[in-house]
Amino acid sequence: MPNPSLLILSGDGIGPEVMAEVRKVIGWYGAKRDLVFDVSEDLVGGAAYDAHGTPLHDDTMTRAQEVDAVLLGAVGGPKYDDLDFSVKPERGLLRLRKEMDLFANLRPAQCFDALADFSSLKRDVVAGLDIMIVRELTSGIYFGEPRGIIEDGNERVGINTQRYTESEIDRAARSAFELARKRRNKVCSMEKANVMESGILWREIVQKVHDEDYPDVELSHMYADNGAMQLVRAPKQFDVIVTDNLFGDILSDCAAMLTGSLGMLPSASLGAPMANGRPKALYEPVHGSAPDIAGQGKANPIACILSFAMALRYSFDQGAEADRLEAAVEQVLADGLRTADLLGEEGATPVSTSGMGDAIVAALDASL
Ligand code: NAI
Ligand code: MG
């Protein structure tokens, strides 16, 4: 078996800074766990524009289609704000998502005990929280036709259309059930089947996929508005939540904030299985390029490191090693180490970006 392959696209701003810490972690797995990755690096976003006049070179796109997983830092920055829309840094990321057909966006909301007081909710409600929202990413109301602003008599009308095909629902549901099997085996599907036909079909197809191919997974259905209430009332009742593009956009942001800082949040976008059975996959922190702190050693690398932990679990079937890495992060936080975005409590130890990466690697060492 060849080594699993990983394409690293660090991008702009703090992207290269946080990715340097992930490289330490990847190096550790090669040296200490005999888990060697075939790593290649390339440019994306403003960095690619500076070198090639395009935010994603065709060769990079081709390489991204071939590797087992892509790990991305962040794109964008004030330097590129006045560029034409067609070559803006964000276009590089959008092209990757579109051409890899990454239809399932995974956003975990995980609350480490040491940070539970950062949440706006009570410690008891969020401590130990570990849920995953699967948002359908390539269809639904953001893409449906007809759309536009039209004249109708003497006023204008804004139109967007929610449209889901059976196959689009089917593949999103499968992603959720597959994930659940690698977690606590529970899926809650959210829509508004009470008032939307697309929601009726959504519920029907999710149930059908479950009954035919995933009867071992515990499935429930919930109206999305109730889901929003339950997320802030008792989020620990959930394991995997699967929902459409619009509801997923809102519910994933809501769930993310249960847990504190943007510097802590990983994500993954998955597509169809490749010939080797692994899904097409792009892993990236939720945060952007943070130009306000770039180049100062202040960025929190944990979101990017946890994105690599997701890659271990969901692309490389290394669930135990993903657990080990998450436990190492938990350990350094419990030890009081804090990058600037997490400072505030008394007794915390301020660390730089590389100080945090080194501490996580040391905690990995201590886990052996
Ligand atoms: P941002 O996420 O870059 O920053 C928002 C705030 O959070 C800033 O104060 C920043 O310092 C802080 N922050 C973000 N990540 C952090 C980390 N790891 N550690 C510590 N603090 C952190 O969002 P903003 O400011 O709206 O956008 C800045 C640039 O990033 C823009 O060009 C935007 O288009 C781009 N962007 C790119 C994304 C991506 O690559 N996926 C996502 C969001 C924004
Ligand atoms: Mg959003």
Automatic annotation (TrEMBL):
Q: Name one Pfam family in it.
A: Iso_dh
What the entry lists under SUPFAM superfamilies is as follows: Isocitrate/Isopropylmalate dehydrogenase-like
- Cellular compartments per GO CC: cytosol
Protein's cellular compartments? Cytoplasm
Catalytic activities: (2R,3S)-3-isopropylmalate + NAD(+) = 4-methyl-2-oxopentanoate + CO2 + NADH
Q: Where is this site: Important for catalysis?
A: Y142, K192
Q: Oxidoreductase among the record's keywords?
A: yes
> How is the cofactor bound, in the record's words?
Binds 1 Mg(2+) or Mn(2+) ion per subunit.
Listed binding positions for NAD(+) are 77-90, 288-300
For the ligand (substrate), the binding residues are: R97, R107, R135, D225
> Does the record bear Manganese in its keywords?
yes
- Amino acids binding Mg(2+): D225, D249, D253
Molecular functions per Gene Ontology:
3-isopropylmalate dehydrogenase activity; magnesium ion binding; NAD binding
Under which EC number(s) is this enzyme classified?
A: 1.1.1.85
Q: Which residues form the Isopropylmalate dehydrogenase-like domain?
A: 5-360
| Keywords attached to this entry | Amino-acid biosynthesis, Branched-chain amino acid biosynthesis, Cytoplasm, Leucine biosynthesis, Magnesium, Manganese, Metal-binding, NAD, Oxidoreductase
Query: What's any GO biological process attached to this entry?
Result: L-leucine biosynthetic process
Which family is this protein grouped under?
A: Belongs to the isocitrate and isopropylmalate dehydrogenases family. LeuB type 1 subfamily.
What is the name of the protein in this document?
3-isopropylmalate dehydrogenase
Q: Which gene encodes it?
A: leuB
